[in-house]
Every structure is written in structure tokens, then in C-alpha cells.
Amino acid sequence: MILLSSFLLKPINAIFGNKKGRGYFIAGLVIVSIVVLMAIFAPFIAPYNPTAITMDTFSPPCWKHIMGTNRLGQDVFSRIVWGSRIILYVVLLASSLSMVIGIPSGLISGYYGGKLDRILSMVMDSIYAFPALILAIVIAVVLGPSPINAAVAIAFVYVPTYFRMVRGQTLSLKSQLFVEAAKAIGARNREIMFKYILPNLIPTILVVFSLSVADAILTEAGLSFLGLSVTPPTPDWGYDLRVGQAFFLDGYWWLAFFPGLMIMLLAMAFALIGEALNERMTSR
Amino acid sequence: AQNNKVQNKTPVENLQKSNAIVIGVTDKVTDLDPANAYDAFTWEILENTMVGLVKYKPGTLKIEPALAESWEVKNNSTVWIFHLRKGLKFSDGTPLTAKNVVWSIERVMRLKGDPSWLVTDFVKKVVAENNTTVVFYLKHPTSYFLALLTTPPYYPVNPKYNPNKIDSDQTAGGAGPYKIIKFIRGQEIVLEANPYYFGMKPKTKKIIIKFYRDATTMRLALQNGEIDVAWRTLRPSDVLSLEKSNFNVVKVPGTYIRYLCFNVVKKPTSNVLVRKALAAAINRKEIAEMVYRGTVEPLYSLIPNGMWSHLDVFKKYGDGNVKLAQELLEKAGYSKNNPLHIQLWYTPTHYGDTEADLAQMIKTQWERTGMVKVTLKSAEWGTYVDYARKGQMQAYLLGWYPDYLDPDDYTTPFLSSTANSWVGTGFANKTVDTLLKKAQEIPNQNERAKIYEEVQKILADQVPYVPLVQGNLFIVTKPNVHGVVVGPDMVMEYSYLYKVS
Amino acid sequence: MSRGIVQYIILRALMIIPTVLVLYTIVFLFMRVLPGNPILAVVGTKNIPPEQMKHLMHIAGLDKPLYVQYFDYLWQLLHGNFGVTLAFPMGVPVSDYLKLRFPATLELTIWSFTISIIIGLITGTIGAIKKGTIVDTSMRLYSIIAYTLFIPWFGMILQYIFGVWLHVLPTSGRISPNVNLHTITGLYVLDSIITENWPALVSSVKHLILPSLTLGIVLSGAYTRIVRNNMVEVLNQDFIRAYKARGVKDWKITWYALKNAFIPIITLMGLQFAILLGGAILTETTFNWPGMGTFIIDRIEYRDYNAIQGTVVFFAFFVGLISLIVDLIYALLDPRVKY
Amino acid sequence: MELVQVRNLKTYFPVRIGIIDALKRKKLFVRAVDGVSFSIKRGEVFGLIGESGCGKTTLSRSVLRLIEPTEGEVIFNGINILKLNDEEMRKIRKSMQIIFQDPYSSLNPKMKIGEIIAHPLIIHGMDKKEAKEQVLQMLGKVGLTPEKEFYERYPHQLSGGQRQRVAIARAMVLNPEFVVADEAVSMIDVSMRASIIELLEEFRRMYNLSMLFVTHDIAIARLITNRTAVMYLGKIVELSETKTLIDNPLHPYSRALINAAPTISRKKDFKVKIKGEVPNAINPPEGCRLSNRCPFASEICKKEEPELVEVEKGHFVACHMT
Amino acid sequence: MLEVEDLTVYYYTSKGVVRAVEGVSFSISKREWITFVGESGSGKSTVAQAVIRLVPYPGKIQGGKILFNGKNILELNKKEMRKLRGREISMVFQDPMTSLDPLRKIGDQVVEAMTEHGVDEEEAKKRAIKLLKRVNIPEDRIDYYPHQLSGGQRQRVAIAIAAALEPSLIIADEPTTALDVIVQESIMELLQELKNSGTSIMFVTHDISLAFERSDRIAVMYAGKVCELGRSEELVSNPIHPYLKALLDSVPDVHSDKKVKAIPGNPPDLRNPPSGCRFHPRCPFASEICKKEEPELVELEKGHFVACHEVV
Ligand SMILES: Nc1ncnc2c1ncn2[C@@H]1O[C@H](COP(=O)(O)OP(=O)(O)OP(=O)(O)O)[C@@H](O)[C@H]1O
Ligand SMILES: Nc1ncnc2c1ncn2[C@@H]1O[C@H](COP(=O)(O)OP(=O)(O)OP(=O)(O)O)[C@@H](O)[C@H]1O
Ligand SMILES: [Mg+2]
Ligand SMILES: [Mg+2]
Fold it and tell me: Is residue E155 part of a domain?
């Protein structure tokens, strides 16, 4: 961890110096790294098989099971550790998908304008204005519960976020003098888009990415809370929270508490990173 | 003790409360028209607000007169003649005659709603001889026709019901012990005693039924004092913990069964050895214990415990008999290195939250043989049923609520090759077909019992289905609520409920 | 001028149509591509003869080619008709459900919205005024934490604290079943005030507290953030310093700054409202609130095409309407807007 | 020998209107440039002065076809560039360049200085190594030394004056024949302006460049331009040798403009008062566009638009009163 | 009337302390127009803002005295300061586009400037109309919003507000930089009128020609310090400080054919200003002492102050 942090601090200092937002960034990064490491090294970290049904049910947190066990005698901590894989997988896949679609279409739409732009904007705005969770639920239900389908459903509702951001920025960058300068030296449209406009979008894309990942985590959790993301026994935070919620009132608080806490922490971590990047960008 | 706080709020609230009992349910009232209603809880509402020619004696399987005082059977059980009581009235005071009975039944036949087959499959014609006599002419001899008559499609409905259309929100009801005075979909239904009811006056004048989305909120509501009775369906764990904390828990054996289906046409479950092995690997006791927390009973046949002709035919495979399962799988050509790959399907919401746990449990049990690799799959109800009908699933979980209480309803729909297409196992067996047909026609119960026993043995040999558990019903009430009566048809009779203050 | 406004409203309202069309099309396409249908959900595991299945499919209109179904429904929509339910029960106008469920959602969202705006304005303004101090930092942390709270989890904790532990607030439903309320608008609080039914008022307000607090707090995070950032920006502007240079009182300056900062927030409010509706689904499930969210989830289980399409279209209309209202408020508040 | 000839050039911008007007298909235009003709000789610096919003920038961009003009001709080296297709236009851009007013937004913040200057060369077919060599030379010429160090820097690491030098280097590296400088010094700090002007002057001399020099500061126009045109609301109102124009302005607007310019060299004695401010270019006044502000305006001014006529040799004025 | 002694203002930025103004002293008497000139970043605005105690975050008035009619402004409490602002000293900002509240009618803003200082509503309204007339804004514009006015008109409204209570001092920080010359001319004239009617003007600009035209005295600032101060004709005809000389050489003039010469080098970074005389790295006459010792502002002739080792 010390090694890792010294390795990470260099670039952070390069970006943030001793500016504000650095603390947010580091806090966010630490949580995200922990969860990512958890996901990568799940087999080594998790003390038990997360799906094994045992007779040791409803054990409260203790040394043997630091987060207790659930109704089927599965170790909650092990499920949390393995569950990080699913949520990261779904959310990152979804965000990448929506970026892959949203960014180029926003760029082209904003740069060329015209009819295509108007139609695309209308479709994207319609989806954007609609409650994302509802749409994601409808899509996820129809496609059936699986991580990939959940990712598709989430990706679908986040495409407009990227599209709108990229389109808006493209429009404003398009009117910047350096783009006109590029035209004046005879650069082609493709060159202007990818050499002059896109690099300038990257900081904003990063911010939107972190914030929308934070959001997508909650959407994913919402889907899996409604049982639309994975099929058991695959460990999954949202689903475990939902099942655990039923036992909350019996005093088995650890079943739902820990998954919910993890969802919040992970979403918060990305939000912190996004906030820090945003602050860094706006305070020039 | 906590409840008192809420109860003793204002005198007005208290007064209202003693005259009314609030029941919480997680089911829905789908359709108040008996021509279309076809689910257990809606039938409960219909059976409390309407009544047929005959009914079950409360809490038993015995059929007793209701609107009809007496009846005769003729022509090898194909002609049934019923004599109505005099001076019958609907709950709004409209007189009820044989004509109303015929009109209602013909309406069901005409409208072709979901449960209409309960009439159309059996009744050729129904006639009102005079104001008090109704005659049924059946298509074929039906020994269990009285059981059919207890179901809502045979109930006379108020003439206010739309004659040509399904009338889902019609609250005019029939001639049962209660009438509906308020119905808000998804929120509540309020019943009030019917002053014109011919039978016993209800003990509590007003029944309010509140609908909950899930068991947890319903349970919270009970603990919070918002409802007096938590009825269908609390989670097993909720029942256990409520029992510990001062609530009354009433347990009633149910006639509701859960079972596993195999596709007998498609590989690998087309191999009977595989089916037998998987059946042997299942440990019902463990399921009842771990998944249902002891609130259900293991079931070893499709015909439920306690019904005549029931045989524990699946006991021969044992419970969690890993050894036998391994032997059978080896015989079928599988081994540890060449395991059987199988997909087990379930539907996540239709059978409640425990369904996923049930699937996980079965997966674990099968994999204990070391020779099976199970992939769990799930689909929402609408899709699940489609997959089932098309025979697209290998192994899948279903449940059965009886339409009428007769062994026939637990065998024919599953095993008769002409009647079981809905379930999608592809099971067809000539011997079974003839046996079932015969059992429908002969009136003698002992003779019929023998036939059903034979059928159950074939079932256990062929294993197209593996019966898992039989449900119990739990009603949790506040300590001051009494008079919970639930029949074997799993319908609660609200008129016996009462509260002491 | 006034004629201008009327024309603007009409034209702006017409712009809702494409939005509705887009969403209807998306949902229609997604729902039909995969197996399963509402009739099967109804029939379920019941032993129903094939002819009757066909008959039911015919009644539901599901035996027609897809494009016919698509345009049929569109045609119905044009007549203000959302179709009838196809499952449990069949044939009830979807609009009946909407009439019943929508006020519940509306009531929940209005309260949550109010709560979130109030919290957001207060925390955001405090943060901006105390920019750079520990107070500001804690407001910003509040904003992030609130924003990332997972509704069912947060709701559950509130339920536990106030419902089970302190036992002071009901944890589910809209009103106590023992209270009779004559509904007029479907908004219980409003109805009980109109009918002067005080027990109903107490009961409905009590039922509202936990769900709307849950949703309101979660959504306030976004407002805190944007109010703070806008306020910081506005407070940095020349005209604020100009006010100071004129000796205008501090509280007045804060008020003027807030007014200016509020303008971009209005736009956010429109979008926030959509998020609010999304959050309402989870809130409704957690608190057994009989609104649109729980309705659509119930209907999805049966794949009740018409009900789902109807709900989505209705939501799209509603969201469009909200954004229209937001635009109008914007135009009214900001003298710079031309229409 | 004329390098650039502009004939009756018009550039209109559609006005963004409310959706109501848009649906009524009511179309409004800003007539930013409304029929302008002039020509620039080889090696000449042609000045363009006028108040904010009078269309200077629009005109200069239209001449380079960075904005598509609505009407008119721009003849460069005998070719009407408004008729060229995309590819031909791209080629001809090599010989016509522009330097913008704002040194902060005219450089891509994500490119190194070296890349910024090299890109035009690479676009026009030079290989990277050769380009780098040229760029280093160019950096030296514009005074950004040490060259190697500046090559690797990013724009935000430079001061405004240095950035403008980069912009000049980018424009000059292609060896253009014609350069447009749009307020090239107005955002530079007072003490730095002189050096930038010197630099431009040097390039002009070395390469016999033609230049269109846009400014609102008459003092600067005097410093660098040979001839100057005064623009008002999209039209040229006066055009002449710069010195003649300043010493003997004929148009009332030019007079007001020149008189308003602050000066140290003499105390102002009289003022030609021009009331009010520039009206918007969507509905310019009828007749002479200055008629509503001009103290000398008579009836005819409100009706007829004056033509640009040569009153002395090389001195053109558009005014009924002179 | 106003005496500033040894004013020092620092900005505490995250990248270091910017010593924006250090040891600046000057005075303004009644009916006087004093202009501060200097290149960008020399601290002109900071001085101006300090006088009305509106140095923006993260700036802090580090030391010195600002005596207004004998009272030290820096020692006033919030309420007293508020009363002073607008009534005794008021300010006009650089950008007319942003210095008026876009959401309120200009009339209301003018009226408010008066009612906040105790003038009753009716009276204030009457005076507002007069004021607007005086700055050449037609009466009917009183209900306009700022965006409906042109830049020059807005700046005039800002001046009207500043002049509303007839303060003794109006600070105008580059009020014309964003405007065209013709409009600039009219604004300058307006300020001149105000001066003629008894108000002192503290004017800030970077345009030495503009400074020369109307001011009584000019203070030339370089890197946070005043390097030369005196009557305007005197300064232009007889500049003494090398910086002022260079500055005058570097600006072109409409009516002369003089060649311009750039000042070599770059303005210093005020986080880390040069030692000794801050101009020495760019000064052609700099000697050893200039690198070490800071020159004092001394009165060379009557009313002509210079801070330079070489000339003293
Ligand atoms: N892209 C555009 N769309 C619409 N109108 C425009 C556009 N560009 C400029 N205009 C308008 O055209 C007119 C002339 O603008 P232009 O920028 O050419 O003036 P300018 O003389 O360069 O002014 P400045 O001195 O402020 O740079 C102005 O009224 C301006 O508002
Ligand atoms: N808010 C601030 N934060 C940090 N540094 C500042 C701030 N305002 C001004 N400075 C710094 O203080 C110094 C003096 O600035 P000031 O604005 O007084 O200069 P100026 O002479 O008015 O310049 P200009 O002509 O550009 O307006 C500059 O170096 C500037 O960078
Ligand atoms: Mg311009
Ligand atoms: Mg300044």
C-alpha cells in the first residue's frame, strides 16, 4: 500500500500540486483501488467460498466471519469481496459502451451540425430527459437478468450523457479560434475533430466519466436490487442487500448493511474523483 | 406491547377499529369478475363475497349445501339437479333465483375468460326448470362435479355485471357473507357484512384488506399496528420471528405444492436415469429447513399429503441420496471428469423471494454428487411460461394451486398427454392416459383411489416431475384476534374472525 | 407579448410529441424482441386449451403483425387513450391505473422535491458564503454523500430508526387504513385539507415523512452542489462587488446572488425531476408506496405491454410537461430570455 | 499589381430567433458585411478601422473564406477563391494566412508549440523531420529563443506576447503571400505591442507580404499601414492613404473616430460629436447608415445611400455632404 | 481629502504570496482627477479596490493607512464601512456587461443605491430619473433590464449609480477599456462633468494618452509601486523615470509619425519581485545600487515625485 501510494502520488501531485481537491481525489482513489484490488484478488482475499451453503446461518460479525453469515450460511465478507467483481464489471462495461457510442456521435453531431445533428439530438435528449432507472429497468427486464444485459441497459441510458456533453463542448470548441486557425492552415475536418477538438474534450470526459460511473453504480445497484443484474448464487451487492433487507428487522442487520455501505462507498469514491477533477478543471 | 401505543391514539380511531379487522396481504385482487378471476387470493375475495350452489364446510373437505338445499344426480353422473333455498337475495337486496344462476354460468361460458374451462370442459348445458331448480347436463360423466361447483365460475353474480364483457372492477358481488363497499386497486378493499346473507352472520362487520408489495413491508405494518392480521404471504423467517415476539401464529396445512419439472424429450433429461439420479440427489428436508425455515413439509408425490389416494412414491429414492445418484449417473455414462451439465431455471418473483434460494439449494444438492454442473437461469414470469410451453428449459421449478380439490386436479394436468402441454415436459404415456380417463368417470372413490395410486407409481418410475414440498399456510395475528378459519382450499373465511378488546 | 407567450407555450408543448414518440418506440421495440407475452403470464401454469389461448391473444390484439400493433397503439394514444391492461386483470383501461397511481407518485415527488430544494438551497448557500472553510468542505461532503446514498439502504435505515426502534412513524403505505378519506385530487394531504379531515391529514403527513425524506435527502446532494457552485460563481461577479461598493446590506446582496444563482438551477430542476421519478421507483418499493413506480414494476413481471407502454408514454409526457413548466419559469425569471 | 481584389462582398448571418419566428419562417439577417470592395497590392499593408461590431472581423474572415460569404468575389492571384472546391481551397490556403486577436484561444492548448507551428507544414506535405528543422528556424525568427526549449512547451506556459509570436510563426511558416492580421496586437500588453508590430513589419519587408491589418486603434494603423479603409455598419465609408486619412478625414464618421482617439501630442480643441452608438446591423437605417447619428445629415442622407466616390486621387469617401 | 500612506496589499494564492501593492502613498484633494497608469498587473486595480476596502479574496490589506477626511478607513467596522461606500466613496467597474445585476431593472438598481442610505423611496425615484437624464439615458429606459442597453449606456448607468449620492470620491477602474473610442469619449466627458461639479475622480487606465487628456495628476505604477507621480502635462513633457520614458516611447500616437520602441524584457512576477528597484532588470540605466536598494519616492520638483536612484 505504501509502495502503491508513493507510486500514485507522483502523478497526483503533477495534476493537483497542493491545490484543493487533492484530498478528495486521493480519498476517492484509495477507495476505488481497494475495491479494484478486492475484485482482482478476490480468490485470495475472500476467506470462504461465497456461494457455499453451510449450516452456520445468521452468524453475527465475529472473528470467524468478520461481516457475519447470511440465511444460507454464506460468508457475507466473502460475498462482498466477490461481489465487487460484478458491480465493477457491469458498471465499467456499461460506461465504456456508452462512451464508445456517445463520444463519436456527439463529436460528429456537434461538428457537422445539420439534419443528422437535429435528429440525434432529439433522440438523445428524449432519452436523457426520461428517468434513467425506469428505462433501464424496462430494458433489463426484457433482456433478462445477466451482467451483460444489465450493462447494455445501463449503457443505453448513459449514452445521451456523453453525447450531450461532447456535442456541447464540440460546439463551443468549434467556435474557438484555434479551430479556425486549423481551418486556415488547411486542416481536414477529420484532423480538426481528432487532433484539435477531441484532446480538449478529454478532461471533461474524465469528469463526466467519474460522475456518471458514480451514478451508474447506483443504477446498477438499483437493477440488481430488483433482481435484474445477476442470477444467484453469484455474489452481488444490490441483490444481497435486497435479500438481506428482509432480515433487517429480525436484527440481522449485517446482511443488508454491508452491501449497502459498499455501494455507497464505491459510488462516493467515483463522485469524489469526479468532483476533484472538476474542481481542478474549473480553477485555472 | 409496542402496538398499544399506536392503538390508543384517539377514541374515534379506537371505536372504528373494534368494528373492523385489517388484513394485510401481498397478493393482489386481479379481477372481481368470476368469469375471469383465476388466482388464489382473488378467489378468496370472491368466496367471501359470493357463494355457489354448494360449498366446503368451513375448515374441512366436506361439501355442504349453500344456495342449493339439496340435489340429485342422474344418468351416470351426467345430469345434476339442484333445488335452491327460498327467498334468496343478492347483497344489494335483489332477489336471487335459478335464472340468475343459469345466467351467470352461461355468461362465464360465453365470455371465455381464463377459468371458463372449469365450466366449458364439463357442462354441456345448464337450465332453470323453475325459479328454484337448476339442472346441469354434462358432456361426460364427472365424478367430482360438486368440487367444481365450489369454484367461483359457478357462482351467481349480481345482474349488474356486464353480460357481454368481463367486468373486472364490478363490486356488486353476489350473495356471499360480505359485500364490497370500497375497492382501490393495489391499495385496499373494504368489505362489510351482507345483511341479506342466508347463513351465519359475520362476527366482524367490517373487513379491510390492505395490499402490500412485499412481505417485509407487510410485516413492518403488523409490528407497527397498522394491520391486525398478516395473511398471504409472509416469509418463513418473518413468521418465525413474529412468533417469538408475542404474535399469534396459526398454521394451516395447504394444498399448494412445489415441484421440479424435467424436459423428457430433450437431452440430457430425456434419459430417465439422469432424471432418477437428480431426483435422488434432492434433499427435501434440507430444503424445508434451510430455504423455508421449516414452514413447509417435504412432499413425495404430486397428490398432496392428507388427500385420499396419496402415496409417498418418491421415498424410494431417499432424501439427498448422493450414492444412489452417483450410481445412476455412472450408469448413464457420466463421471467426475465427464460431469452432467444442466441448466436449472427458476422465476424470481412469481413464487416469492425464496425462489432464488430454492434454486441455489437444489444446485448445491445436485453438485454434491460431484458429477453434475448446474447453471442457474431465470426469467420473468411472462417469459418463463413461454419457455415452459415451448419446452425450452431442461429442468425448471413450478408450483401448483389446485383448481378443485380432487386427486384428478393433481394428476391429469401433469400426466395426461392431452392436458399437459402447458407444462412443457413432453411427458406422454398411454397407460397413464387411459387410467386417468377411467378415474374421471367412475363414481366410486375407493376404485378411483386405486387408479391414482397406480398412476403415482408410474410417476415415480418415469420421473417427469420431482415433487419437492407442500406448503403450509401461516396467519399471524395480533394477540387479540381470534377465529382464523382457513379451508383446505386455502381460503380464509372472514366471517369467523373477531377481535376482543 | 401575451400572445407571444401563448404561442410559445403551444409550440413548446408540441415539442413534447417527438420525445414521447422516441420513448414509445424504444420501449415497444425492446419489449417485442424477446419471448414471452402478457397472455402467457396470465395463463401461467393453468391448463388452458389452445383455442382459448388463441382467443385470448386475439382479444388482446397480439395476433396482429408487429407494425400493426405499433400503429394501433399510436392511434389510440392520439385519442388520449392509453389502451387496456393485458394481464391481471385484462381489459382495464390503463388510464384508470394511472389516475389511481399517479397522484401517489406526484405527492411523493412534490414533497421530496420541496425537501431537496430547501436542503439544497440552505446547505449550498452556506457553503458558498463560507467558501474555503471547514463549513464549506462539510457541505460539499454532505452533497457527495447524499448524492451517493443508495435509496433502499438509506430508506431501510430510516425505517428501522423511526419505525421499529423509536416507533414514531409508519413505515409503509400512504394513509392508515382506519382513516376514511374522500379523495378528490388523489393527493391525500391536499384532499384531507379540502375536506377538513384532520385525522386523515395527520395520518397522511405521517406516512409521507419517511419516504419523502429519503428521496429528498438523496436528491438534495445535487442541489447543494450546484447551488454552491453557482453561488460561488455569482458572488465572484462584478455586480456583487458593485453592490458592495454601493453599500448595500449583506443579506440583500446574498438574496440577489441567490436569485442569480437560481437561474441555472431551474434548468437542473427539470432534469432533476426525471431523476426524482427514477428514484421514486426505489423509494416506492422500499416504502410500499402505491405509486407509478411500483405499478410499472408489477406490470413488467407480466410483460403487460400496454400498461408499460402507457406508463412510459405518460412519464414522457409528464417529464415533457415539467420541462415546459421549467422553461416558462425560466423565461419569467430571466429577463434575458426571448421566446 | 493587385494581389487581392474584393468585389461587392456581402456576408449575412442568419439571426437566432425564437421558435415562433422560426416556424413562421421569418428570416432575419445580421448584415455584417454589406457590399464591400477594395484591393490590396503586393507588399502593401491595408488597414481596416472601425468601431466594434462594424464587421471588420467578418470581412477579414470572409476574404479568407473562413466564413462563407453570401455574395461577391474574392480574387486572389487572379482566381476567385469563392468558386474553388474544398480540396483546391485547402491547397490555396498555403499562400494566405491569418493571425487572430486573442492569443489565448488561438493556440490549441493540447499541442506543443513545436507541433502547432509544424502542423501547417505537415498538412501541406512536408515530412516530420524537415518540418521540425523549419519550425526551429522559425522560432528563432520570431524571437522565441532558446528554440529547442520553446519547441517543447505548451501554450499555457507562455505569456500573451510570446503566444502571439507563436501565432505569427504558424502563419509565416508556410511562406504566405497574403496575411490577415485581425487586431493582432489589441490584446497584448501596451509595452509589448511595439515589439509585435516590429516583428510583423520585418516579415512584411523580408517576404514582400501583402497584409490586411484590422484594428480599432487608429494610432496603430498609422504606424503600420499604407492605406486604410474606415468601416461603419458593414460598409466602407472612407478609403485613402493612411496619413491623408488621419490628417484630413472627410467623412463625418472618420472625423469623429479620429478625434475621439486619445493623443498626447496635442490637446484636443474641437469635437465632432457623433451621438449615440452603432445601431444593430439587422435593421440598419435607410439611406446613409450614419444618418441617424450624423450632425450634418440632411434629407437626402436619410433616403439615398451614398456611393464610395474618389474625391481626390486615391481618396474615396461615401458621403452626400462632401 | 484622501491620503494613502504606505499601502501594502498581498494576495495569498495557493501558488504563493503575490505582493501586488507595496508601500504606495499618494493623496487626492477635493475636485481633483488623479489617474493611475501602468501595464497590466502593476497593481492599479488593487490600489483602487483597497481604497474602498473591496480587495477580492484572497487579497489582504497588509499595512498602511487610508485616511479619508482624517479618519482611517481601515479601522472602520463593517457597518461604518457600509455607510461610507456609495455615500462618500463609490466605484465604477471595468466591465459594464457584468457590473449591473442582470435580473433587476436599472431604475430599481439606481433607486436602491439611494434608499440603502436612507433616502426615502419617492424621493429616490425622482432623483433616479434626473440622474439618468443627466447621464443621457432617456427617461423611459428606467424599466429596462441591463441586457436591453448597449455597453456605453450600461456604463453610464453605473456612473449614475456611483454619482447618485454625490460622493466626494468616485473610483473608476478602467471604465472604458471595453468600449469603443467614440463611446469612451462620452464616458470621459461624463466623468469630467462630475469632477466639475465637485467630485474627486480616481481613474485607472493602462492608456497613457487617455490619462494625459483629462487628469490633473498622474501616478505611474510599475510592479506594485508608484514610480513617478506628478501633474499630467509635466509628466508627459518631462518624464524622468526610465520606465515612464520607455512607456511613452512605446505607444504610438495618432497625430505623430514617431517610431515606437518596445520595452525590453517582461513584467516581473510579483510573487518573487526583483530585488532593489523593481524595474532594474529592464532598465537601460541600471547600476549596482538599483539591484540592491529600493529607491524612495522623492519630490524632485514641486509636486513631481520620482523613485529612481539614477536621477536623484
Ligand atoms: N457568427 C455570427 N453569427 C451571427 N452574427 C455574427 C456572427 N459573427 C459576427 N456577427 C455579427 O456581425 C456583426 C459584425 O461583427 P464583427 O465581429 O465582424 O465585428 P468587428 O468589427 O470585428 O467587431 P470587434 O471590433 O468587436 O471585433 C456584429 O453585429 C456581430 O454581432
Ligand atoms: N484575485 C486575485 N488573486 C490573486 N492574485 C491577484 C488577484 N487579483 C490580482 N492579482 C495579482 O495582483 C497583481 C496586481 O493586480 P491588479 O489587478 O491590481 O493589476 P492591474 O494593474 O489592475 O492590471 P490590469 O491592467 O490587468 O487590470 C497582479 O500580479 C495580479 O496577478
Ligand atoms: Mg473583431
Ligand atoms: Mg485592473
Answer: no
Distance CA B465, CA D166 (A): 82
User: Which of these CATH numbers, 1.10.3720.10, 3.80.30.20, 2.40.37.10, 2.60.120.10, describes A82-283?
Assistant: 1.10.3720.10
Number of domains in chain C: 1
* E48 inside domain: yes
ipTM of the complex in this document: 0.83
Q: Does A64 touch chain D (CB under 8 A)?
A: no
Return the ligand 1 atom nearest residue D61 CA. 18
Q: Which helix (H) or strand (E) holds B56?
A: strand B54-56
Flag whether E162 is in a domain: no
Residue C319 lies in a domain: no
pLDDT tens digits, one per residue of B154-203: 999 999 999 888 888 888 888 999 999 988 887 889 999 999 999 888 98
Domain boundaries, position E259: 2-88+167-306
Whether the Cβ atoms of residue C280 and residue C215 lie closer than 8 Å to each other = yes
Query: Is D239 at the interface with chain A, CB within 8 A?
Result: no
Give D114-137 pLDDT, tens digit per residue: 999 999 999 998 899 999 999 999
Residue A29 in contact with residue A1, Cβ under 8 Å? no
Q: Are B137 and B78 in contact (CB under 8 A)?
A: yes
Does E contact B via 3+ CB–CB distances below 8 Å? no
Q: Record the cell numbers describing residue D209, joined without a space.
A: 507580404
CA atoms of A106 and B487, how far apart (whole Å):
64
Q: Strand B340-346 and strand B395-400: pairing?
A: parallel
User: Nearest CA to CA, how far is C16 from chain E (Å)?
Assistant: 29
DSSP D153-218: --GGGS-HHHHHHHHHHHHHTT--SEEEEESTTTTS-HHHHHHHHHHHHHHHHHHT-EEEEEES-H
Structural contact between residues D169 and D103, judged by C-beta atoms closer than 8 angstroms? no
Residues of chain C neighbouring A249 (CB-CB closer than 8 A): 160, 164
Ligand index nearest the alpha carbon of residue E41: 2
pLDDT of residue B6: 35
- Give, for E33, the enclosing helix (H) or strand (E): strand E33-37
Residue C215 lies in a domain: yes
CB contact at 8 A, A256 and A244? yes
Share in percent of chain D as helix, strand, coil (round to 5): 35, 25, 40
Residue C223 lies in a domain: yes
Q: Of the candidates D61, D108, D120, which has its C-beta nearest A178's C-beta?
A: D108
Chain D: nearest CA to E116, how far in angstroms?
Answer: 32
Give the nearest ligand 1 atom to D59 CA: 18
Cα D50 to ligand 3 centroid, rounded to whole Å: 10
Q: Across B177-181, C29-33, D282-286, which has the greatest mean pLDDT?
A: B177-181
Question: Does some domain include residue E267?
Answer: yes
B477, with CB counted inside 10 A (0-12, 13-18, 19+), is buried
pLDDT band at D17 (very low <50, low <70, confident <90, very high): low
Amino acid letter at E73?
I
Question: Touching check for D309 and chain A: CB below 8 Å?
Answer: no
Among all ligands shown, which has an atom nearest to the Cα of D14? 1
Q: Which helix (H) or strand (E) holds D71?
A: strand D71-76
- pLDDT for position C3: 59
Is C158 inside a domain boundary? yes
A199 contacts on D by Cβ (under 8 Å): 108, 110-111
Say yes or no: B238 contacts chain A, CB-CB below 8 A.
yes
Chain A CB contacts of D100 below 8 Å: 177, 180-181
Q: What is the 3-state secondary structure (H, E, C) of E254-286?
A: CCCCCCCCCCCCCCCCCCCCCCCCCCHHHCCCC
Domains of chain D, first to last: 2-109+154-317 (3.40.50.300)
Q: Which residues pair with E8 in a beta bridge?
A: E63
Residue type, D116: I
The count of domains in chain E is 1
